[in-house]
Amino acid sequence: MSTTQEKQPHWSLKQSFAERVESSSHPLTSYLFRLMEVKQSNLCLSADVEHARDLLALADKVGPSIVVLKTHYDLITGWDYHPHTGTGAQLAALARKHGFLIFEDRKFVDIGSTVQKQYTAGTACIVEWAHITNADIHAGEAMVSAMAQAAQKWRERVPYEVKTSVSVGTPVADQFADEEAEDQVDELRKIVPRENGISSAKDTDGRKGSIVSITTVTQTYEPADSPRLAKTMSVGDEAVFPGIEEAPLDRGLLILAQMSSKGCLMDGKYTWECVKAARKNKDFVMGYVAQQNLNGITKEDLAPTYEDDESATEEEAQADNFIHMTPGCKLPPPGEEAPQGDGLGQQYNTPDNLVNIKGTDIAIVGRGIITAADPPAEAERYRRKAWKAYQDRRERLA
Ligand code: BMP
Known about the structure:
Elements: H1 11-14, H2 17-20, H3 27-39, E1 43-46, H4 52-62, E2 68-71, H5 87-98, E3 101-108, H6 112-120, H7 126-129, E4 132-135, H8 142-157, E5 160-168, H9 179-191, E6 215-223, E7 252-256, H10 268-280, E8 285-289, H11 299-302, H12 314-318, E9 323-326, H13 351-357, E10 362-365, H14 367-370, H15 375-397
Parallel strand pairs: 1-2, 1-10, 2-3, 3-4, 4-7, 7-8, 8-9, 9-10
Antiparallel strand pairs: 5-6
Helix pairs in contact: 4-5, 6-8, 13-15
The structure holds 6-hydroxyuridine-5'-phosphate.
6-hydroxyuridine-5'-phosphate binds next to strand 10 and helix 14.
């Protein structure tokens, strides 16, 4: 199978995440690109821990280093399904506090009618708390449009109320607008101690970086029963990450186009069908879970012998700006060059191989961080490596 590496690199591989904001067709993708620049992070934590309380504690500790937190709610013991105060709602509060999106790795696959219900109803009611979910489209493209329809219906159904809030905006000047804002930033600073995010106003004139901001009073329409506004949450849980506004309420889908596991049966033909489904459903599909960059890819690249009438036009392929998230990521142990598999079929690549060489955008790391002696410190190490891989890619292709 040939790859994009043999062709001229697609424009999206050369651009910064900031530059890709404008040409994103999905509001949540635009938001995520901006968040990635603000936090200087292209790291997703796969939070596959045993108990709900461990999940929440881990999300709170590692939150400052990541832009996406990936869950498998069905492997978590003690998941509380209450829509306003349960585990999903609590995770949503942590996502607001630290500035990350929640990605439920549910891998939906069924007929459209069933996936609609699995996504927006049932015990877990995934659409309520997960900004992003994913689908294995072996059941056919119709399930993608069915999920898009369900997400849209959910979005329209959510009752609205006007919320008046004081928010701390993007750093703009060297003085605080007033004392109240300064206090507010101090409080938020305790929550986000790492030198990134709001500290992007740093040091252009040689002085120590300072957090500078203006206070703005905004009126926004918020869904009355959204976990983002859970009334029963304690005051501390209402904190909002100061570097960027809250995530939009739009929901997004990642298509599971390729997997990291040994012997995976998803062949080039399947991946090509994923690319077509993504291009057809740009309002809902943010991108892919994949092992390589698929932007600009053609049938000839993926499945040359597959007889398919629907070939992509050059124009269509050029317009791609999908985001790519990649699991099977680990750093090798000290003294070794490559990370070993887990003995159960999982295959690992380094962040450099995935982001710099294969051109994916977000590295998904689970056990590499979770089983470390100090998960927050290890998450920081992965964040730096994955971000460097992104910078190296841009330098290499410039
Ligand atoms: P770990 O880094 O501990 O191997 O975890 C990888 C995570 O990514 C798991 O949650 C797994 O279900 C998920 N995953 C994967 O490993 N490979 C894929 O191709 C798709 C996945 O969702």
